[in-house]
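BUG: 3D viewer hangs when loading the predicted structure for this chain

Environment: internal workstation, default settings.
Expected: structure renders.
Actual: progress bar stalls at 90%.

Input used:
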Amino acid sequence: MNRKRKKVWWTIGIVVAVLVVLIGVGEAYFFNVAFVPGEKSVLNKYSSKKKKDPLAQNKKWYAKTKKEHWHMQSASSNYRLDANYIPKKNSNKTAVLLHGFGNNKDTMAPYAAMFHQLGYNVLIPDARAHGQSQGKYIGYGWPEKYDVRKWVKKDIATEGKNQKIVLFGVSMGGATTMMTSGIKMPKQVKAYVEDCGYSSVKDEFLHEAKDLYSMPSAIASIAVELLSGVSKANLGFYLGDASAVNQLKKNKLPMLFIHGGKDNFVPTKMVYQNYKATNGPKKLWIAKNAPHARSFETYPHEYKAHVTKFLNKYV
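Structure tokens produced before the viewer hung:
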């Protein structure tokens, strides 16, 4: 009888040990995919397959135009951050453009051209752990919001106190924009424009666990909770802390929300949560047939018109 009990307990112990190892390996994999810089093949599912590029002229302009190279130290962790700055002659308006997950400042070329055409100086940083900026981990906008504030202050110190500044971001950059709106910013910041940002990092990870990895809801919730603990240990915040919705509740400045109506990466429903949360003047445009981060590409003229009309009212 004692031998049977011992065998049972040994079996249970082995099963538990194996499960712990498997969970540990799984969480290490997901942490590496989510937070460690590098190529992200998981994004291939959402990549565009269009042959014709309606934004080609914007990209050509960006490639040829002269750029100033700016640097600064990050707001935390002492990383060296990199940015391009494109001045607009006789302009006192600056647009700070924030790129998406796995991208870099050069992928913001179409938006840089658009804002320059609208009369703005353009400042385009590489987020920490992206492009030519240093960084151990990707923070999804949570630590980066303080880097954005430092970039804004650097612009004001460089170009003068009469600057009128707009923050603009796409995808992770859109979420960073919204998160930044909830901290105290210089008075020169006049408005925000976010395109397809998530409601929180936790909500986005839950969606990806189910959509990318086909996890059942219960398993996805457990996996994300475990990953949240790993994030806290390594980056200093739980996934639920990094909430655009909660930051927007503190915002009182104007914000334009843009989201693709066929966004399967950051579900379109998230923009309604974000829009409802902000306490400043606001406008929402759903680009009906646009997939993730493709609203400008899908509706180039309408996109520019919406941005222009909104900013002319507040900047």
